[in-house]
Design a protein that fits this description.
The structure holds 2 protein chains of 2 kinds. Chain A has 8 helices and 4 strands; from the N terminus they run H-E-E-H-H-H-H-H-H-H-E-E. By secondary structure, chain A is mainly alpha-helical. Chain A has a two-stranded antiparallel ribbon with strand order 1-2. A two-stranded antiparallel ribbon of chain A has the order 3-4. Chain B has one domain (3-130): Cytochrome Bc1 Complex, Chain D, domain 2 (Orthogonal Bundle). Classes of the chains: A mainly alpha, B mainly alpha.
Chain lengths: 180, 132
């Protein structure tokens, strides 16, 4: 019986570690945004850009972005989708949005946005803006290897794989590591 | 013996599933023709490919992002996104999915022509692309 309980506890422990973005001495830490992936979202959105994790925006922002009218003019491009795909992708984004996430960055993102605001650009989220405010423009927009704050992966080396955006994982292309 | 046959059938199925990325242009052209498009004309497709449309004060055409030498990669004139060569002879995975072709026709026709393309225009463009 004791052995059974031990095995049970171990399983829960292991399962938690798999679920967490990272862990510290085996204790899970939800420190970035949830690095959740979805095949349909990847297939349709990552054709053009990094499939931004749902936890980077609140649900109301995703709903706004994914509305048929919005997709017709998606930041200057047409990104219309098959209606069934549009609904399924919207559901994925809304269900995993920052609102109910227990990941640190998602919590900070949602707390930084005023109640009535519906930011559709991740780069306009107050928390994201603040975190990047000290970086000179020449390293971002003036840097041909980065070009814009929108290209997370040009500097955040562990964003795509782990949803981690910590300072010590930043490497600004054409410049180097960043310490603030 | 029975088991062996079963395994062989399984392997064949796997093989067919793996090689199912065939070019869908002939099938799509037939589909559009069944809806009333004519035989089509690759030259008309080429002309449309090069034709410039004014949008927000700037000229846009298919070739502005996809280039005219379709065996070469293009880049999006606004975002700089690298676009793999359109030529099915170079990019073997091009035109392997009907749904994807429909999706990009819809997006790109509206972005360049400010309207959806007619089925005839789609046939012409597909015939032009098929030759590359």
């Amino acid at each position: 019986m004791t052995r059974f309980i031990l095995v049970l506890i171990m399983s829960v422990f292991i399962a938690q570690n798999v679920y967490a973005a990272d862990n510290f001495l085996g204790v899970p830490r939800f420190k970035g945004v949830e690095p959740i992936k979805n095949a349909l979202y990847q297939a349709n959105c990552a054709e053009c850009h990094f499939a931004y994790f749902p936890g980077l925006l609140p649900a109301r922002s995703w709903r706004d972005l994914m509305a048929p009218k919005s997709l017709e003019n998606h930041f200057g491009d047409n990104a219309e989708l098959d209606e069934m795909d549009r609904r399924m992708i919207t559901n994925f984004l809304v269900n995993n949005a920052a609102d109910d996430s227990h990941y640190k960055r998602s919590i900070k993102i949602r707390r930084s946005i005023a109640d009535g605001d519906v930011p559709v650009r991740i780069t306009k989220v107050p928390y994201i803006k603040r975190k990047h405010s000290e970086i000179p423009d020449r390293l971002i927009r003036g840097n041909p290897k980065v070009r814009s704050l929108s290209y997370c992966l040009n500097c955040h080396t562990q964003a795509a794989s782990k949803g981690v955006f910590d300072d010590d994982t930043v490497f600004i292309k054409g410049y180097g590591e960043w310490d603030d | 013996m029975r088991l062996n046959q079963f395994i062989i059938v399984c392997l064949c199925c796997l093989f067919m599933a793996n090689t199912a990325s065939a070019n869908v242009i002939p099938e799509m052209v037939e589909g559009f023709q069944a809806q009333g498009a004519s035989v089509g004309d690759a030259d008309a497709g080429e002309a449309l490919w090069k034709k410039k449309f004014m949008v927000e004060g700037k000229a846009r055409s298919c070739q502005s992002c996809h280039t005219l030498d379709l065996t070469k990669a293009g880049s999006h004139i606004r975002t700089g996104k690298i676009i793999e060569p359109m030529a099915p002879s170079v990019t073997l995975t091009r035109f392997s999915e009907v749904k994807k072709v429909h999706k990009w026709f819809r997006r790109n026709c509206k972005w360049v022509l400010s309207r959806e393309c007619s089925i005839q225009e789609k046939v012409d463009i597909l015939l032009f692309l098929q030759k590359q």
